Here is the input.
Amino acid sequence: MTDLSFHLRVTLGIFVGYTAFVALNAYLAGYGQFSGGVVLVYLPAGLRLLLTLLFGWDALAGLLLSSVAAIYYFHFPFDLDRALVGGMLTAIAPYIAYLAARRVFRIEPELRNLDARKLLFCVVLYALVNALLLGLWVDHVMKLGQPATTVRQVFVADLLGTLIVVYALKILLSLRRRAAP
Here is the structure.
């Protein structure tokens, strides 16, 4: 299999999987919303960071496509401008955290040297970057007039969602290791 073929498959897999996860989250979280459609816990945020830490550039591409589609069909129906900007912001935030973690911690392939402290740094940095980018944009587009509140709500939702997803996966992996002979 060529490198291009591999990267396209990873990108397509991320697009399909992440889109399905966003749809499931929208269905499950329909009742726990702040103003402006910001939810209390946003589980897809955790998947965005995890996929980006694992797949880097391929994740950025897959998340961009998926985020544009999700925003276009779910959040701002058939508004391509908002979908493109929102999709770019939500895809670039975990990539910024990924690049910072690679530079500061010299993260190795397969995240071998990513311990709990470094992972927590990535989670908090990602939630902060995404909250600033997306929160300010959502506040501007929805004309809420409360940028600090919107940024705080996005930060809390992304932080909680990312912590839940990342540490749930960590628990599952540790259980799997114990069960393995």
